[in-house]
């Protein structure tokens, strides 16, 4: 199972973790906590951490492990005794998540989203929608009604 997260998911990490645990724990499933970065996001995050290495010299899995809310989710899954790993990827977010799902042979993707109007989706796009439409497996969409963009 792939739990795809981004920086906005910090506020809904607990709900995402509960959703994943409801599915993964009874099945004994392995959870992959995946965080995709655009190249620009990666550069900003790298600079914030004071990392000297450039994009091509750093393992995206290591960068993802340092990004919120990944470490909190990892702690939660460890406490629950659920097998997990952390994966990172750089590219267009929707495509990177779908590629990650294929790479780990995910049976399900769990992705969070926020409430947006149809006009906002039309103008700004929707990463969650892109993932749902391209996914190689079923997608569980965790809709957080309290989070607005």
Automatic annotation (TrEMBL):
Residues 12-141 form the UspA domain. It holds the Pfam family Usp. InterPro entries: Rossmann-like_a/b/a_fold, Universal_stress_UspA, UspA. Belongs to the universal stress protein A family. This is UspA domain-containing protein.
């Amino acid at each position: 199972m792939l739990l795809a997260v981004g920086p906005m998911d910090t506020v809904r990490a607990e709900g995402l973790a509960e959703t994943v645990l409801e599915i993964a724990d009874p099945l004994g499933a392995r959870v992959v906590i995946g965080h995709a970065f655009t190249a620009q996001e990666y550069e900003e995050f790298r600079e914030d951490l004071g990392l000297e290495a450039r994009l091509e010299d750093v393992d995206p899995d290591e960068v993802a492990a340092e990004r919120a809310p990944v470490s909190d989710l990892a702690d939660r899954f460890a406490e629950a005794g659920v097998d997990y790993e952390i994966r990172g990827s750089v590219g267009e977010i929707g495509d990177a998540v779908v590629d990650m799902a294929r790479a780990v042979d995910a049976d399900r993707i769990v992705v969070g989203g926020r409430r947006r109007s149809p006009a906002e989706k039309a103008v700004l796009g929707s990463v969650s929608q892109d993932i749902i439409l391209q996914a190689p497996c079923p997608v569980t969409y965790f809709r957080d009604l309290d989070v607005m963009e």
